[in-house]
Structures are given as C-alpha cells and as structure tokens.
Amino acid sequence: MSGRRLPPLSALRAFEAAARLRSFKRAAQELSVTPTAISHQIRGLEEHIGVRLFERQTRRVVPTAAAERLFPVLRDGFDAFAAAVEALRAQPQRRALTLSATLSFTAKWLVPRMASFRQACPDLDLRLHASDDPVDLHAGLADAAIRYGRGPWPGLSAEPLVHNRFAPVCSPHLGLRRPQDLQRHALLHSEWRHPTADTPTWQRWRERASADGLDFGDLDFDAGLRFTDESHAIQAAIAGHGVALLSLALVADDLAAGALVQPFGPVLDGYPHWLVQAPGAERADLAALRAWLRAQADVG
Known about the structure:
By secondary structure, the protein is α/β, with parallel strands linked by helices. It has 10 helices and 12 strands.
C-alpha cells in the first residue's frame, strides 16, 4: 500500500477553522497566528490540491463548492481527534512507586503482604528495591525506604514502623524446651554489616541470659553457621539446621504457621524498622503507601 499523500496538517487546520468561521481573521485568532499566516497556509493547500477553496472578497471570504465538499470531512476528522485525545486524558494515570528495604525485610515482611497492597492501592504499581545498602533518596533512586537502626537520619523524614524484639527460634522438630538444650544444637548467626554494642547477637543474648541466672557451661556462643543474609538464617532455622536469634517481627508468619517456635527467652530489644523518605511536597501516592504500611504494621 502506498503512503498517504496528505497536505501539511497545519494547512488543513487553517482551512477547517476558516471554513467553519467564514473568516481568516477569526481563524487566526482561534489558532493564535496572524491572518497573513492563515492566508499563506490556505494558498499552499490550494496549490497542493490544485483547486481554489475560497473566493476572496473585500471584507470576507466565501468557500467554493470544493471547499464545501472538503470541510465536513475535515470537521468530523478533527472532532474525532479531539474526542480521542480527551478520552485519553480522562483515563486514570497509574503511578509507579519504588520502595527500598533490606533483603530480609523485603523477603519476610513486604513480599507476603503484596496481595494486601494491590487490594488497598489498585491504582499504584509498587517496585520493591531489595538491598542492604542505603539508597540515596535525595537522588530519587527510590520514593521511600525502610531502614533498620537507631534513627532518625539527618535530612530525611523518618517514623518508626515495626518494633523489633529478638529471641531464639528454631524448628519445632528440634524439640527444644530449655535454654540448656542449646548445647545439643548448632547456633545460626546473622552477620551484621555494621555491628554496635546494641546489636542483637548470641554473645549479647548469653550475657542477658547469664544475668537471669542461666548457666551454659562451656558452650561456645561464637561457633555455628554464619549467614550474610538474615533471610537465609531464617530458612536454615526452618529447615532444622540449628537455632537462630531472629527478629520476632520478621518471623511472625512462620511462628503463626508453626514452621518455627520460640522455645524460651530471654528476649532482646532491637532497633525499629523506620519508614524513611526525603522531605518535600506531599504526594497522594506516597500518602497511600504510607497509610498501607502503617496499617500492616498495626496488624502485626
């Protein structure tokens, strides 16, 4: 099929306006150009199709018979264009948000709740950016982030979202009943990237347990399996490879399902997971995401 041999769109628009308004001047006002520009566009159109379209009289222009045939076709075409564009404008625009979070929080807290997010925010698309490296929110690499730590962070707005408490958890098949039973099983360690004196480690748990009067003999609390990703330590505990000291918030679903048990204490307090974003103008999509996260944190 050969290509369409159409005149320039600007010339067709000038002709349609002039024929509809019966005036080059009024057509120029509608299209925000000069009457001379309208006259040149129409003259070029007449040369393109080889037919005179207007009789130019002293104070007016009169469409010719050819113009009367061409006008309704162009009028209906431009009306159809306008209706199609307006229909596109009327369609709701979907927003895509990027939420950054640590690997373990993404895997164990966010991903299981995605069905709830789609139900609560059907007009939003959520991209989960899983990384243990803090993302630069000021650079726009993410719209919001969830961070674990003492908080707050300079230059960022932050609110505590999920409060963390850490305790020994394991598969129910290990049959642990008392803290002394730890001597019969491997300890699973999550390696913290930037440990502090408050980091919930097995050594800190031992100090707390010893203060409560528990005696573990010569048990080496530094021995066992080590994981750089906390979610891998969780999976190892579910598989029965040992006992892990984990955030009860992150394994809440596994505890509820019976895949893990918390056989005994003591329980260590940890830092919260914070909802963090760059300060600025409030946006409806971010407000919806924040409201959903708050509701999920309240649920548990």
